[in-house]
Design a protein that fits this description.
Layout (H helix, E strand, L loop, with lengths): L10 H6 L4 H23 L22 H7 L7 H7 L2
Length: about 90
């Protein structure tokens, strides 16, 4: 059953089902104003977040060397050459 606005057009009456010309124009006016408000918010200059350092290469001075790994894990199955090199 369609809703009747009884000569009182509004967006609420449109959402309840009234499709008279006055309620349709109220709906279109409301949507136009809503789009304009949304576009104004979107067009504001939002400061960009810093890009970060994700593309910087790994600093190899900070990485563990193979000798450090062998010294930290002498219980693993290392070859004699690797143990000798690490001084274990």
């Amino acid at each position: 059953m369609k809703h009747d606005c009884e000569g009182n057009p509004s967006i609420t009456n449109y959402s309840r089902g009234c499709r008279c010309d006055l309620c349709r124009s109220a709906k279109s006016t409301y949507e136009r104003e809503r789009r304009e408000r949304a576009n104004k918010k979107a067009n504001k200059a939002v400061p960009k977040k810093p890009a970060g350092k994700r593309d910087n290469p790994v600093v190899f001075n900070d990485a563990y060397s193979k000798v450090d790994i062998i010294r930290a894990n002498p219980h693993l199955d290392w070859s004699e050459k690797e143990r000798k090199q690490a001084g274990v």
